[in-house]
Structures are given as structure tokens and as C-alpha cells.
Design goal:
Blueprint (H helix, E strand, L loop, with lengths): L2 H15 L9 E2 L12 E5 L9 E5 L5 E6 L4 E2 L6 E6 L7 E7 L2 E7 L5 H13 L25 E3 L13 E2 L13 E2 H17 L1 H4 L15 H15 L8 E5 L17 E5 L1 H17 L10 H18 L7 H7 L15 H15 L2 H10 L13 H10 L5 H24 L18 H20 L2 H14 L24 H4 L45 H4 L3 H15 L4
Parallel strand pairs: 9-13
Antiparallel strand pairs: 1-2, 2-6, 3-4, 3-7, 5-6, 7-8, 9-10, 11-12, 12-13
């Protein structure tokens, strides 16, 4: 599995150390497909000594030339300074499989009526493969069957979470849910954010998702497959609430497991420290779920009442404990065993109070929660991440403005102002014609999701709110970037494209006899390279921020997968695919 790392190192060496010739020229484009009428571009290396615009041709599957043109004048990548040219072949609209040629180099290109339907389905099915406590069996496994792992029917209360009613080492059951990422643990804060994006996406496009068959064990119930899959995780989240209303921060091994199958794992499991952030993310999730699942009370009897009660209790607990933060180092100085898995530490929970109050108001219509939401709303606009859910609440107000029209309009204005500089960059300085990836700070841990896909989702919300075409165009441009029109030339989704991520930091993929599971989004280039010089991770010298990616399993800083990253991927692809329905 190290061979892909070697090939990438060689490719990066060519990129950083050689003057481009026809033999080293690369064509970077969306490797999955374009809708017939959308903008279609590709990025190419400069192919002539004088940097004159290159001649480009596109051939059909039968070998006929269907389009010829000339690339743009040379542009310099604003991050690496490398010369690039853009090819715009939007005029080609006939569905088919084509080959784009520049000198002796070529790349496959697809135009289809529904190019993102299969990708959306697999991005959602990735959650099924992340299920704990149940075997993944045929016919639902679709070639990736495995035994059940981590039943979590014997989970210990960590001393940090002990109470008189549940002393340290009390055994509780907390089965189900999804593995969070490439590891085998489960985290409420990240799960809450994921469920927020998940259920908000469903609420906006329910007619689309209702037609999407995922082939999961619950298929055929009188409930959409997407909601059935989400319920598997929601049920687990409910088990993480203590009897006093507080919510455990995570369910985890003391340290990460090796890269073995989940059924081979033997380490003890703990629920750890109840935190304010966990309680608030939980409250928001349950309030949102109670609203979304209300039409399916016959399938999930008593769920709405259970979720509503759980949300209210978690909110009350958070009000009584407004500043209990997850500080793993401090906790480990006080309690044993030491916990050294993902922290998901969050020391500012104003946005979490805002989101929880928002969802509770939309569920109950109680003005106490509306006033709390308005009071907790941060003054500064910030894009949504697991550690800052402010924007999720603001989007909810934009979509449900009744009674707070002026406030909702302010949030809409802030969203559009946030997007404008990036849209301008796509038109002026981007060598990939993208509103993402034109600044060094764009490349961080999980940037493919929290930077690129989420920006595309923001553009889709802006398009729904305004109807302005530029937002739709830029949502498509964000997806182009993830699917191959980027500095590395990778399609960052496993199992898709001509150069997909093949060796992610993902224990389920690494330990499976068939190899990498399809439909997972890799984290992407990361200028911080927190994993450098560990476990054989060696980034090529002088590589730029947008090229700091290794398709190499030990590279957790650039090549891990997580549920919160996949949720933004399918929210973007489904949002675009739904336009063709």
C-alpha cells in the first residue's frame, strides 16, 4: 500500500523540480462528470516554451473531433507560482464520454444528465459501512461484507464522568452509531455537527432523497433510506445521555486501535466526561430530529417525544453547566486511565448555545428559545465546522424567517458577503476557476470538506435564497476541485475518477480483504503536515500548500476520512444532482 506514496512523491518531484515539457504536462479536470449545460473547464500545465496558449481538441468515443479551441493565456498559481492555463469547453453539451487532448497528453472527460447520482449514493452508503455493533452483510454490503465490531454493550464510565448514580467503572450499554473516522471511536460533538448538516440537507431536498435507494437493511420501511440510516446514529446518541441530562463527550478506547479489523479489537471502551459542547450539540440534534421525523411516527413510535425530552434535558443541563470544556491533558492529570484519542476540544460554546436554542425554538415555537437564540448569536460570521456550528443556526433562520425577518435578512447578507471575495477570486486569479484553493490558509486538516465542499454547500444555500446563477456555478466549481481540478490532480473520493484516493487513513479499508471502500472523501492537502516524519510519512521537499497531500495510509493529516467530511460531500453532490430531477 506504499506504492501510491512512491508514485506521488515522484509526481511531486516532477512538479517542483522540472520545467514542464509535453511529457510531463498534466490535465486536471473533474473526473466524474459534468452536467450538459454547466460550465466546463480544465487546467493544464503550460505546454510551450514561450507560454503561448495551447491548442486543445476533444474527441468523441468513436474518435471524431467534436471540439477544438485554445487555452487561456498563462496564469500563475497564486500559491505555488507555477504557470497554468485554463481550457473552457462549456460549449460542448452533448452527453457522452470524450477524450481531451493537449499535445501528446490526454484525459477522459464525461458529460451526463445525472453525473453525481452514483457519487451521492456511495457518499451516503459510506455511513452504512461505518456502522458499529452489527455485521455488514450481503446483499447490503455490495462486496464489502465484514463481521460486526464493537458491540458496546459493556462500556465503562470513566472516572471523569462518574456520578453518585454512576460511579467510575459502572457498566452501561451504548451500542450502534457510526465509527467517527479512520479510527473506531464515537464522538458526540462531531456526530452532532454531522447530523445537523445531514438532517438539514434532507429537510431542504426531501423529495430528492426520498427517491434515493441505498440498499441498507432498513430499505423498504415506510421511511426514506437516508432517514433510516441517520436513525442508526441518532439511536446511539440517545444512549450517551446521562440520567441528569448531561451528555458524555465521547465513547472511546483509551488509545487508538491498531490497523486491524473491528471484530479483532479487544481494548476496553469508556464514556468520557460530560461537556457543555456535547450537551448542546446533542440538544440541537435531537430537536432537529424530532421535527424531521415527525411524519414517520408510525415507523418510529414515541421517538419524537423521546427526542424532544432528551433535547430539553440536555439544554437545561448546559444552562446549569455553561463552561465544562473538554481539556484532555488536564483530565489525564487527574484521572486514569489516560485517554489519548481525538479530543474534539471546544472552548467557545456560544455558537452551540445559539444552534441548540434555534432548533428548540423551531421545534417547540416557545419564544423563550427564540429570545435565547437571538441573545447567543455571535456577532461575527464564521463558516460551519464541528467546532463552530454558528452558521448552521443562521441558515435555519434564513430558511425559517417567520417572525424574525429582519434578523434572517441580516444573516443572509452576511452569508453573501462571506462568499463574494471567493467568487471574485474564481473569476480573476484562480488557475482552477474555483472559489476555493487560492490562498495558503485554504489548506488545513479536512480542507476538502470544511473548506471546499462546505463552501459549495454555502453557495447552494445562497442560490436557493437568491436564485442568482453565480452561486450555482460556484457550487459546481467547488465540486470540480474535489473531483480532480486541483493542484495534485487527484479525485479525492475513493472509488471514483481516473486518479482516485486509494490508500486512505481508514482502518476499515486497510483491514478489509477487498481494500478501500468506495465513496469516502479524503481530508486533502494540509500545509501544517502534523504527521510529517512519523510512520514513514515523508512529504516531498518544497511542495506548496495545495500539493501537501499523500495518498498514503499513515498520512492522517492529509488522507483520513470522517463522517463530518462525507456529510458535506453528499450535501454538495445531492444539491447539484437534485437540480436535474
Amino acid at each position: 500500500m506504499k506504492r501510491s506514496y512512491f508514485l506521488l512523491a515522484c509526481a511531486c518531484a516532477l512538479l517542483t523540480g522540472c520545467k514542464h515539457t509535453s511529457s510531463s504536462l498534466e490535465i486536471r479536470l473533474n473526473q466524474v462528470g459534468f452536467r450538459p449545460l454547466q460550465e466546463k473547464t480544465a487546467t493544464i500545465d503550460v505546454c510551450t516554451a514561450d507560454a503561448a496558449p495551447c491548442s486543445v481538441s476533444i474527441l468523441s468515443a468513436s474518435g471524431d473531433t467534436v471540439w477544438t479551441g485554445t487555452a487561456s493565456t498563462t496564469m500563475l498559481n497564486p500559491i505555488s507560482g507555477k504557470p497554468r492555463q485554463l481550457v473552457d469547453f462549456s460549449a460542448l453539451t452533448t452527453p457522452g464520454t470524450y477524450t481531451l487532448h493537449v499535445l501528446e497528453q490526454s484525459a477522459q472527460m464525461i458529460i451526463a444528465e445525472r453525473p453525481y447520482r452514483s457519487l451521492t449514493r456511495q457518499a451516503l452508503r459510506a455511513f452504512y459501512h461505518q456502522r458499529t455493533a452489527m455485521p455488514i452483510e450481503e446483499p447490503f454490503a455490495e462486496g464489502y461484507a465484514r463481521p460486526a465490531g464493537h458491540p458496546d454493550d459493556h462500556v465503562l464510565v470513566h472516572p471523569s464522568a462518574a456520578t453518585d448514580e454512576r460511579p467510575a467503572n459502572t457498566v452501561i450499554a451504548s451500542p450502534g452509531g457510526w465509527y467517527d473516522a479512520g479510527d473506531y471511536n464515537k464522538y458526540i460533538v462531531n456526530s452532532g455537527y454531522t447530523m445537523g448538516v445531514f438532517l438539514m440537507a434532507y429537510e431542504q431536498l426531501s423529495a430528492y432523497y426520498d427517491t434515493l435507494s441505498l440498499n441498507i437493511p432498513e430499505s423498504g420501511l415506510r421511511v426514506p433510506d437516508m432517514l433510516a440510516e441517520a436513525m442508526y446514529n441518532i439511536r446511539w446518541m440517545l444512549t450517551m445521555q446521562d440520567t441528569d441530562g448531561g451528555v458524555y463527550h465521547k465513547l472511546t478506547n483509551p488509545e487508538f486501535e491498531s490497523f486491524i479489523r473491528p471484530d479483532e479489537c479487544q481494548k476496553p471502551r469508556y464514556v468520557v466526561l460530560k461537556t457543555t459542547a456535547a450537551a448542546l450539540d446533542f440538544a440541537a440534534t435531537m430537536a432537529l430530529a424530532a421535527r424531521v421525523y415527525a411524519p414517520y411516527e408510525d415507523v418510529y413510535p414515541s421517538f419524537v417525544a423521546e427526542a424532544t425530552t432528551a433535547a430539553l434535558q440536555a439544554w437545561d443541563w448546559a444552562l446549569a453547566h455553561p463552561a465544562i470544556y473538554y481539556d484532555q491533558n488536564a483530565m489525564n492529570e487527574q484521572y486514569t486511565p489516560a485517554i489519548i484519542t481525538g479530543a474534539y476540544d471546544d472552548y467557545d460554546v456560544q455558537g452551540e448555545f445559539y444552534w441548540a436554542a434555534t432548533e428548540l425554538y423551531l421545534l417547540t415555537q416557545n419564544n423563550v428559545y427564540r429570545e435565547a437564540a437571538l441573545a447567543y448569536c455571535p456577532a461575527v460570521f464564521t463558516p460551519a465546522t464541528w467546532g463552530d456550528v454558528t452558521e448552521l443556526a443562521s441558515i435555519e433562520w434564513m430558511l425559517h424567517p417567520q417572525g424574525v425577518e429582519e434578523f434572517a435578512a441580516e444573516k443572509k447578507t452576511a452569508l453573501l458577503a462571506h462568499l463574494m471575495p471567493y467568487i471574485e477570486e474564481a473569476e480573476t486569479i484562480s488557475v482552477h476557476r474555483s472559489p476555493y484553493g487560492n490562498r495558503e490558509e485554504d489548506f488545513f486538516w479536512g480542507c476538502n470538506s470544511e473548506g471546499c465542499c462546505w463552501r459549495g454547500v454555502e453557495c447552494l444555500y445562497a442560490y436557493r435564497l437568491t436564485g442568482e446563477e453565480k452561486y450555482l456555478v460556484n457550487a459546481e466549481r467547488c465540486l470540480n476541485h474535489v473531483l480532480g481540478q486541483n493542484a495534485t490532480g487527484f479525485c479525492y473520493v475513493t472509488g471514483f475518477g481516473t486518479r482516485p484516493t486509494k490508500d486512505p487513513h481508514h482502518r476499515l479499508s486497510y483491514s478489509h480483504p477487498k481494500g478501500t471502500l468506495p465513496g469516502f472523501l479524503a481530508g486533502g492537502p494540509n500545509r501544517m503536515r502534523q504527521d510529517a516524519e512519523t510512520d514513514g510519512v515523508r512529504y516531498p521537499k518544497n511542495v506548496s500548500a495545495d500539493e501537501s497531500y499523500l495518498d498514503f495510509q499513515p498520512s492522517y493529516a492529509s488522507n483520513e476520512v470522517t463522517i463530518n467530511w462525507n456529510v458535506t460531500l453528499f450535501a454538495l453532490t445531492a444539491g447539484l444532482d437534485a437540480l436535474q430531477q
